[in-house]
TrEMBL record:
Record's keyword annotation contains Ribosomal protein: no
Role noted for this protein: Substrate-recognition component of the SCF (SKP1-CUL1-F-box protein)-type E3 ubiquitin ligase complex that plays a role in different processes including cell migration, cell proliferation or cytoskeletal reorganization. Mediates RHOA ubiquitination and degradation in a ERK2-dependent manner. Induces RAC1 and RAC3 degradation by the proteasome system and thereby regulates TGFB1-induced E-cadherin down-regulation and cell migration. Also mediates ubiquitination and degradation of IL-33-induced receptor IL1RL1 and subsequently blocks IL-33-mediated apoptosis.
Extent of Low complexity compositional bias: 186-205
GO terms assigned for molecular function: unmethylated CpG binding; zinc ion binding
Domain PHD-type: 65-131
Name of the protein described by the UniProt record: F-box/LRR-repeat protein 19
Encoding gene (name): FBXL19
Keywords: DNA-binding, Leucine-rich repeat, Metal-binding, Repeat, Ubl conjugation, Ubl conjugation pathway, Zinc, Zinc-finger
Coiled-coil regions listed in the entry: none
The CXXC-type domain, residue ranges: 12-58
Pfam families listed in its UniProt record: F-box-like, PHD_4, zf-CXXC
Length: 558
């Protein structure tokens, strides 16, 4: 019966799994290799789907679904105590035919099998060893189950043992080259020293080794008798033989690889791109200067600008001017690729909309550190893990921040965002809050408590528009905090949205009269507020009455 007809495991290698015990398995991702940079958690597209280079398991094991090809049962080495019995009941995968069997199920005995000591449950089965097949595993330390007599030493006239496979021979030559390179302490010797080194390397073979045999007992089949020169032009001659012996050069080791640079190098757009005129095919320049072209481009939308960038190289450079991109909308994108982020940085917009996108924390930090002139940032619907990048990014020019409907955000996390950076000096706590210059803040749908509201009043004193709609914890005490005599928002608040706050009652309505600059008050969908009480507030109001275009919506003309 052929190996392909015995079952699904014959002839097809089973994919091994992690051992979860070696040093590589228990460590974390490095974040620097090309596989980590491709992961979505580090800001990549997630296409390779490979593990970190430093987390590749050194001793992968067979999957738990692997069974014996002959008896159909899994490994049962845990049911016995003796070492011989454990081996007979453990699953072993052959590196040649890829069959997974119990050694005890084979009728040929275990004396002819060869175990791979580096990979668990890996061997060369007795059937493949008896047929003389070549192993597919390279460089592994093999342990024979039964000691075999050493092959006779080769004579000077010809080999006495069969030659190994070309793959094994190539691997052994590579090992010998590495050993010779490690033994050379200095590579800047003169030509006379090089000749003496080549002579000494030829006589460094021990006397008990065969003339054409390598140090590990393998005999190369090519280059043992012919006269060949290595890459350095030196030859090592073995005394007592008729011809030179091929040896690897003792030249300098290859220089270390330079550190890997970033894939996308982003440069800010030049302040005055060249040229200032548009060259024509006839050799002359267009009569309109660059300033006139930019005025024309300002009447185009993003789609038309992208079409103009394909016309010529000059227009492509001019269309990157930040005056043409005051606002960029990337909302509801499934993934943000590195070219998209690079394009945002080159255009330097003043307003950026990333709402309902899968932007990661690393991507957001990368953007905020390169958009120093950003004034409006919309992150509604994003995850808090990515929004937490605001706590470590400089936002000197930010005026509008939209954090509506952030997923899995807690009150303690909001406090970390509102508190000043850790490097703030004790005397500058009041003036160095992260939201110090923000004028409009949208926090709809968040679990905002009165403790977080106190921090908001302390570290964001310049708010003129505040959105607290659908915040479940906002009630009458929250309104009292906003309109208290010590509150800085009492004199600056112009727009206040409290729609959907079901804890508000009619007792909090008179407190809004303390805000003289209030122009818009949204109390819609507040269940415990009566329309009559809202109508009385609209009639009295702060200085000047309000008008009610809708029920519980109070507006005042400026």
């Amino acid at each position: 019966m052929s190996s392909s007809s015995r079952g699904p495991g014959a002839g097809a290698r089973r994919r091994r799994t992690r051992c979860r015990r070696c040093r590589a398995c228990v460590r974390t991702e490095c974040g620097d290799c090309h596989f980590c940079r491709d992961m979505k958690k580090f800001g990549g597209p997630g296409r390779m789907k490979q593990s970190c280079l430093l987390r590749q398991c050194t001793a992968p094991v067979l999957p738990h679904t692997a069974v014996c090809l002959l008896c159909g049962e899994a490994g049962k080495e845990d049911t016995v105590e003796g070492e011989e019995e454990k081996f007979g009941l453990s699953l072993m995968e052959c590196t040649i035919c890829n069959e997974i069997v119990h050694p005890g199920c084979l009728k040929m005995g275990k004396a002819e099998g060869v175990i791979n000591a580096e990979i668990p449950n890996c061997w060369e089965c007795p059937r493949c060893t008896q047929e003389g097949r070549t192993s597919k595993v390279k460089g592994g330390r093999e342990r024979h189950l039964k000691k075999k007599p050493k092959p006779p030493l080769a004579s000077a006239e010809g080999p006495a043992v069969p030659s190994p496979s070309p793959q094994r021979e190539k691997l052994e030559r590579f090992k010998r080259m590495c050993q010779l390179l490690e033994r050379v302490p200095d590579t800047s010797s003169s030509s006379s020293d090089s000749d003496s080194d080549s002579d000494s390397s030829g006589t460094s073979l021990s006397e008990d080794e065969a003339p054409g045999e390598a140090r590990n007992g393998r005999r190369p089949t090519r280059g043992s008798s012919g006269e060949k020169e290595n890459r350095g032009g030196r030859r090592a001659v073995r005394p007592g033989s008729g011809g030179p012996l091929l040896s690897w050069p003792l030249g300098p080791a290859p220089p270390p690889r330079p550190p890997q640079l970033e894939r996308h190098v982003v440069r800010p757009p030049p302040r005055s791109p060249e040229p200032d005129t548009l060259p024509l095919a006839a050799g002359s320049d267009h009569p309109l200067p660059r300033a006139a072209w930019l005025r024309v481009f300002q009447h185009l939308g993003p789609r038309e600008l992208c079409i103009c960038m394909r016309v010529c190289r000059t227009w492509s450079r001019w269309c990157y001017d930040k005056r043409l991109w005051p606002r960029m909308d990337l909302s509801r994108r499934k993934s943000l690729t590195p070219p998209m982020l690079s394009g945002v940085v080159r255009r330097q917009p003043r307003a950026l909309d990333l709402s309902w996108t899968g932007v990661s924390k690393k991507q957001l930090m990368w953007l905020l550190n390169r958009l120093q002139g950003l004034q409006e940032l919309v992150l509604s619907g994003c995850s808090w893990l990515s929004v937490s990048a605001l706590g470590s990014a400089p936002l000197p020019a930010l005026r509008l921040l939209d954090l509506r409907w952030i997923e899995d955000v807690k009150d303690s996390q909001l406090r970390e965002l509102l508190l000043p950076p850790p490097d703030t000096k004790p005397g500058q706590t009041e003036s160095r809050g992260r939201l110090q210059g923000v004028a409009e803040l949208r926090l709809a749908g968040l679990e905002l408590t009165d403790a977080s509201l106190r921090l908001l009043l302390r570290h964001a004193p310049q708010l003129s528009a505040l959105d607290l709609s659908h915040c479940a914890h906002v009630g009458d005490p929250s309104v009292h905090l906003l309109t208290a005599p010590t509150s800085p928002l009492r004199e600056t608040l112009v727009h206040l949205n409290l729609a959907g706050c079901h804890r508000l009652t009619d007792h909090c309505l008179p407190l809004f009269r303390r805000c003289p600059r209030l122009r818009r008050l949204d109390l819609r969908s507040c269940r415990q507020l009566s329309p009559e009480a809202c109508a009385r507030l609209a009639a009295a109001g702060p200085p000047g009455p309000f008008r009610c275009p809708e029920e519980k919506l109070l507006l005042k003309d400026s």
